[in-house]
Amino acid sequence: AAAHRWDTEKVKEAPPVDLQFGYYPSKNHMRVLADIHGLPAGSKPETVTALVRERPSGKEVEAIDFPLDRFKDGKQELAFDLPPLNGLYQITVRASGGAMKTAEASKDFERQVFPWESSTAGQEGTVYPPFTPIFLKQNTLSTVLRAYQLNDAGLIDQVAATNANTQVTKDVLAGPMRYHVRAGGRDIPCTAEPMRVVSSASDTATLAGKLSAGPLTGSWVDHWDYDGTAKVELTLQPTNGQAIDELTLEIPLRSDVAQLIHANSDRIRAPVAQAVPPGEGIVWDGSKVACDEFIKNFCPYVYLGDANRGLCWFAENDRNWGWNAATPNLDVFRQGDQVILRVHLINQPTVITAARTITYGLLATPIKPRLNPNTNPNWWHYRFYRDSYRLLGTDINWFGNHSCGTVYPAGQDMHLWEMLSRGSKEKIPDSEVAAFAEYGAKYYKDYGADKVKLFQDHAKLNLRRNLNFNMIFYYNRASCPELPEFETFKDEWSLDDYRTLDKSNSRDEIKVIPSKSFVDYNLYWNDKSFDIGNNKGVYWDNWFIAPSFNTEMTDAYRASDGHVVPAAGIWAMREQAKRTFVMMNERKMTPIVFPHITSFACLPMLSFATAHYEWEWKYSEGDVQDRFSREYLQLVTIGQQAGTWPVPLSDQLQLANDPWTQRTFTAVRMLHELDGYGGFDTAKALLKPAVAMLERPTTIAYHYWEDRPMPARCVNADIPLLVYSDPGKEALLVACSYATADASADFAVDWAALGLEASSTVTDAETGRPIALQNGHLVVPIKKHDLCLVRIEPAKPKD
């Protein structure tokens, strides 16, 4: 596939005529690449024609001639529209005329029409909680938890961001965002005309304006969504032969906010998630992200901030930039009390000869509070665990075809989902379970006895174990060749630029682009899963950047040297999440939108998620404190920036049942309020006092990373605390050791902040052992990487 994408494949004996094509059913559109470089020497066709015909009748649907003077190295692409199709077809490229013998090549394709096409599900403009409508007044645009002060260059002067837990509001930027322009060896100030409002509604706002800097002139359009994301389209006009040396987007953040950095490219388990390095000048740059198929030296996503607030920048690729690919596309520059993100849109002499549009995204955080449909502000804590949600992964558990790429039951047989639903509500007799296992086997027998056994084992398991659980179906950012929908839509969905997969009954997982047709298809079957299968949510595997080389359906583009520059796919994945969130709200469901982020918390892709799955990484690699840094946990795991429930996978492999390892798992999990079932029986016992306190709406949770005073702290900074306080009634200290040796946890307590007295009754919540004050402090021995729970209650009156 890589060789095909980059046009480096060499054919020893090329056929006289060859072709590649892509057919895009939802657009009634086709692209055909004709290759006639294999014609015998001296052959000069008078016509080269692309013909679309019905099969098997041969009836002509369309015929388009290639202009002969536009072939380059024997190749030329034509793009054309087709009438709506339905059936079997063939695309042919034919070279003929003159003294040469007619030569042609043909390929088949299919068009089947499906009931889900052109769906409008999830596209209404209603703003659902926890989001609030956009409020635009003069140059201030407000969304939930943030107020953006905008400037006439289409950028942001300031963001006032509010921590949803503490309600503390703080500015993010150290100064206005700006464009820095350099031309003719000198810096040129950028001026702008007054911003104008193109449109404004509760869910979207479109703003526009013009700017100039010497020979550089342009216009901008910002499209704001109600989650606070801005899609910036900067259009640069021709420079009349003058070169622009530099065009840099500069985003100055406060150094007390921009303490951490999270960035990634397309390698799923190699994120940058760390403290911003110290020092002056350039302290980090985009070359540091690990990259496989994506653009070298190009960081498509970066977040700067802390666990409470910050800002991210993102882009699909460098389309229409003037960027020197031998240099990092962005860097982080420290200057005094500012940490400046510098994005190098142009960093080599560039003469603009035709209008070009550069597109990127901006999003300040926190994006939203966690979903909270009732009056208890603690509703979200451990909601996945407390409400007994269960992920059915992979699709064999809900009786799909076990490809990790389908969205409906095998054979589209709704009886499979009806039985699954029944098993979640009642105990099905053994005889019926056995009969069901035999009934469904027919959908797997063509793939061998082992696949039949796999289905039957999972059928018996899933008709039993899901009783009284809220099931969430596993889906994937993928499809598979066996499915008729994929055969029709594979050129819209696949990551390649032309068709590379022949028709087959393979059940291989094929990663896809969440194009509109793919989302329509998913939502149609998601809807049926809710109605028929008693499914309560939508989980997606592989929610990270998988570069797309599809120039028709994404922002991938063909560079001047002919190779395809891929697109990151961030906007498309965000749109799938948003439409799913809206559709579930349209159904009046709790919108359980649940991507598996696998070490990359790309915030614009998580805006409309309810929960996220994480920690498919570092299984059984010793104590959990050594697996994940606290910086990583704050940036990727805890979900505070996106407003999602954090659900780590349970540990696996050789230490999965080791009591000590699972105790360290529980320690890290409880300190950071990570949901799910990790830690197994160890966690169940230790979670009880925390869950009991969270049932009370008066309980306040204090996290060590938040921007308010803690009512208790450990003198040893390597033993951070989570404090639950029901003022005047009870407090629970959850301490997790990151120390390198056994230690004494020395807790200083602000008794007034807890509404309690120093004479309170203090016990070890796990053992019930009393804990006495020592010089005004609570001192508890704690083993390396262990946890301790300290309960504080008013002293009982003496008889």
Q: What structural class do the secondary elements suggest?
A: alpha+beta
Give the termini separation: 81 Å
Which term fits the overall shape? globular
Quaternary organisation: single chain
Strand content: 25-35%
Q: How much helicity do the residues have?
A: 10-25%
Mind explaining what this structure looks like?
This protein is of the alpha+beta class and 799 residues long. The longest helix has 18 residues. The N terminus is likely disordered. It has 13 helices and 49 strands. The strands form 12 sheets. Strands 15, 16, 17, 18, 19, 22, 23, 25, 26 and 30 form a 10-stranded antiparallel β-sheet that branches.
Q: What keyword list fits this structure?
A:
globular, 6-stranded antiparallel β-sheet, disordered N terminus, 17% helix, 10-stranded antiparallel β-sheet, single chain, 49 strands, 13 helices, alpha+beta, 799 residues
Give the topology, please.
Layout (H helix, E strand, L loop, with lengths): L1 H4 L12 E7 L4 E7 L11 E8 L5 E6 L9 E7 L5 E10 L6 E9 L23 E3 L2 E4 L2 E5 L5 E7 L6 E3 L6 E6 L2 E3 L2 E2 L3 E5 L3 E10 L2 E10 L3 E8 L6 E2 L1 E9 L5 E5 L7 E4 L5 E5 L15 E5 L4 E5 L15 E6 L2 E9 L3 E2 L4 E10 L17 H4 L2 E4 L21 H10 L6 H11 L8 H14 L7 E7 L1 E2 L4 H10 L16 E2 L4 H18 L3 E5 L15 E2 L5 E2 L4 H17 L5 E4 L7 H4 L4 E4 L15 H8 L7 E4 L10 H13 L8 H15 L5 E4 L8 E3 L6 E6 L3 E7 L6 E7 L1 H4 L6 E4 L8 E2 L2 E6 L4 E7 L6
Parallel strand pairs: 31-32, 32-35, 35-38, 39-40
Antiparallel strand pairs: 1-2, 2-5, 3-4, 3-6, 6-7, 8-9, 9-10, 10-11, 11-12, 13-14, 13-21, 15-17, 16-17, 17-18, 18-19, 19-30, 20-29, 21-28, 22-23, 22-25, 24-27, 25-26, 26-30, 27-28, 33-34, 36-37, 41-43, 42-45, 43-44, 44-49, 45-48, 46-49, 47-48
Helix pairs in contact: 4-5, 7-8, 11-12
